[in-house]
Design a protein that fits this description.
It is a single chain. The protein has two domains: 184 residues, Ribosomal Protein S5, domain 2, CATH 3.30.230.10; 157 residues, GHMP kinase, C-terminal domain (Alpha-Beta Plaits, 2-Layer Sandwich). It has eight helices and 14 strands. The strands form three sheets. Strands 1, 4, 5, 6, 7, 8, 9 and 14 form an eight-stranded mixed β-sheet that branches. Strand 2 and strand 3 form a beta hairpin. The longest helix is centred in the C-terminal third of the chain and has 21 residues. The chain binds (3R)-3-hydroxy-3-methyl-5-(phosphonooxy)pentanoic acid. The site of (3R)-3-hydroxy-3-methyl-5-(phosphonooxy)pentanoic acid has 15 residues, from helix 4.
């Protein structure tokens, strides 16, 4: 089994250095959802997602040798230019948990500055973009100091592995367009430990697929994703769910390869509703959809029935509807969104996103 524990990644005594790295990394939207985990962030079922473009985190990481050596993490953290103690504490906890992978973490003093391209309180999960950006920065630091990870494939594999430890879904954000996480016989080389790219296998209709995020509510989620994963352990549907995710994965990957949009849409919508059904059947139960989420779903299905256009929805762990459609029907779909769905969004807000080019080093 792959093991990145590496005691060689330590600075030698009196080695004094400093440096800076910056990555922009996107969020992603799962089509087959990861919901339920065990062990050290291992998924209960395989998942597959579009890597987005507009919704991204920019992270700048500066480092220098610590003045006084010690065993703890030294970190300054700013979000949107402001110190943020809650985020800082979360990051220190994460960095402490990966000292076995990057022993140099306790030898350097770090300063991290992060900002999101999307409004902070837009109700958009930022852990995938922020944790993938941080993991990419850490791999760059390793590369700069130790001259390792020069092979691109190795670099992204390790970045994905480290991102997974920060937030499971983040491991898929290191690859452009589409990525798979979780071992499945359907994808050669797939693993529970890191994501693998899926662009090569993908029908070209999906290469520039739209994902418009309708902001139904900007409110903070009542139940976090990690609490949600935890509740799956007691969910009486859990075993059937994991079996279902595997079956749907097998079906969806066929539709992704042959461009069958109808099959794509049916599986994708069922996955979104299943995710929320699992929340509603957890103990205690909870509901993250809002009345306007359901209203938009009904209006979308009516529109699709009337026009026969292949536009479908998905949902993340929140109330905001993702509209998925190919570029060749963008004009009529955007007219429909503007006239019919936007009035049901909080302050008429929308993030027009699409399958994207993946993380960029700045
Ligand atoms: O990565 P986490 O632990 O925040 O979990 C994310 C889970 C979903 O976004 C709901 C689904 C997924 O596969 O991204």
């Amino acid at each position: 089994m792959l093991d990145y524990t590496n005691s060689d990644l330590r600075l030698t005594a009196n080695q004094s250095l400093s440096g800076k790295t910056q990555w922009i990394s996107p969020s992603n939207l799962a089509l087959i959802k990861y919901w339920g985990k065990y062990g050290r962030q291992l998924p209960r079922n395989p998942s597959i997602s579009f890597t987005l473009d507009t919704a991204a985190t920019t992270t700048t990481l500066s480092y220098r040798t610590k003045e006084t050596p010690g065993d703890t993490i030294k970190l300054d953290f700013k979000f949107d230019g402001q110190p943020n103690e809650a985020f800082r504490a979360k990051l220190v906890k994460f960095l402490t948990s990966i000292v076995d992978i990057f022993p140099f973490l306790t030898q350097l003093a770090f300063s991290v500055e992060s900002s999101n391209s999307f409004p902070h309180s837009a109700g958009i999960a930022s852990s995938a973009s922020s944790m993938s950006a941080l993991a990419l920065c850490l791999c760059t630091v390793e590369k700069e100091i130790f001259g390792t990870l020069n092979d691109k494939t190795e670099f992204y594999k390790k970045a994905s592995y480290v991102a997974r430890l920060g937030s499971g879904s983040a491991c898929r954000s290191v690859y452009d367009t589409m990525a798979v996480w979780g071992e499945t016989p359907e994808v050669v080389g797939s693993s529970d430990l890191y994501a693998v790219p899926f662009r090569e296998q993908l029908h070209e209709i999906y290469h520039d697929f739209h994902d418009d995020i309708l902001i139904v509510s900007k409110g903070e989620k009542s139940v976090s994703s990690s609490a949600g994963h935890g509740l799956m352990e007691g969910n009486i549907f859990a075993d059937n769910r994991y079996a279902q995710a595997n079956t749907r994965f097998a079906e969806l990957q066929v539709a992704l390869k042959n461009g069958d949009l109808e099959a794509f849409g049916q599986i994708t919508e069922n996955e979104a509703l299943t995710l929320h059904a699992l929340m509603m059947t957890s103990e205690p139960s909870y509901i993250l959809m809002r009345p306007n989420t359901l209203a938009q779903i009904e209006l979308l299905r009516e529109f699709r029935n009337d026009t026969k256009l292949p536009v479908y929805f998905s949902l993340d762990a929140g109330p905001n509807l993702h509209l998925l459609y190919p570029d060749n029907i963008a004009a009529p779909v955007q007219d429909f969104i503007e006239a019919t769905l936007l009035p049901l969004c909080e302050k008429g807000e929308i993030i027009k996103d699409r399958a994207g080019k993946g993380p960029q080093e700045v």
